Amino acid sequence: MQIPELARPSVCMRDRGRVEEIIQAMQRAGPSTLQVISDFDMTLTRFSYNGKRCPTCHNILDNRKLISEECKQKLKDLLNVYYPIESDVGRSVEEKLPLMVEWWTKAHALLVQQKIQKDLLALVVRESDARLREGYRAFFDRLQDHDVPLLIFSAGVGDVLEEVIRQAGVFHPNVKVFSNYMDFDESGALRAFKGELIHIYNKREGALLNAAHFRELWARRNVLLLGDSLGDLTMADGVHSLANILKIGYLNDKVEERKESYLRAYDIVLERDETMDVANGILWHITRPEQ
Ligand SMILES: Nc1ccn([C@@H]2O[C@H](COP(=O)(O)O)[C@@H](O)[C@H]2O)c(=O)n1
């Protein structure tokens, strides 16, 4: 199978033969049977650039134009407490889950207190250091050209995420987003977050709540899943009569500690890889006619 990107040193696989079988099955079935489900922060966006951490959707809101210095400090304190828990391999999901709910709930309450202005979101996204991974345009455009639906399933902030992809010029009609959306009052000030909270460990519930979306895509039984945390593995749990799923996991941080668990969970693990090259290589293979 000719996918040169799979030979890169950043690529690790538990079972290369199995990966090749899945990709071949997807290619035989063709793009009309494919859907892509991807996480956003640190999966479609870069983890770092020039040695500096890139922001998540929540971190993009950390801008003086939107929030006070005091709120900024409180959000930073929360990050310092909860991010090490999120990425701790020594704790079980059961142990982490209530703590993640606590983090999101406290952070959202702080953001609501700040009455964030809707009309400033585009500006703070433009001013931020958020960057989609290298090769993102080819990825989004290829999916659009082949009418393959892309579901972005994020525990970040939907309004911010949409603005990032809109400004990058890749918010194509085939893109659908499940995320935490802001609710603004008539003056355009943030008053709450809409619907059920999505955090990194309840994406299965989020998927099941959106049954109508997956019903519409009933014929797309092959799934390419992209994630960066073990919580992202359940994003495809709403897919009907799944035939094949290929799970690609970005291992951005605490690489040595987490490699084993990622290799057990994901079919392909990308170690400190800031590009979309592997996903693009696979996508090109699947969407080109069989030879
Ligand atoms: N207050 C918060 C809460 C969460 N995060 C990070 O957002 C990421 C979730 O988004 P996905 O697109 O990856 O689902 C998660 O990894 C948290 O680290 C944050 O920065 N601030």
Radius of gyration: 19 Å
The fraction of residues in strands falls at 15-25%
Q: What is the first-to-last residue Cα distance?
A: 11 Å
The biggest beta sheet is recorded as: 7 strands, mixed
Domain tally: 2
Number of helices: 11
Helix content: 40-55%
Give me the CATH fold name of the largest domain. Rossmann fold
Strand order of the largest sheet: 1-11-10-9-2-5-6
Shape: globular
Number of strands: 11
CATH superfamily of the largest domain: HAD superfamily/HAD-like
Describe what this molecule looks like in 3D.
This protein has 11 helices and 11 strands. It has 291 residues and is an alpha/beta fold. It folds into 2 domains: 4-46 and 132-287, Rossmann fold (3-Layer(aba) Sandwich); 49-127, DNA polymerase, domain 1 (Orthogonal Bundle). Helix 1 crosses helix 11 (277-287). The longest helix has 21 residues, at 93-113. Bound molecules: the ligand Nc1ccn([C@@H]2O[C@H](COP(=O)(O)O)[C@@H](O)[C@H]2O)c(=O)n1. The site of ligand L45E5XJ5 has 17 residues, from helix 2, helix 3, helix 4 and strand 5. It catalyses: CMP + H2O = cytidine + phosphate; N(7)-methyl-GMP + H2O = N(7)-methylguanosine + phosphate; a ribonucleoside 5'-phosphate + H2O = a ribonucleoside + phosphate. This is 5'-nucleotidase.
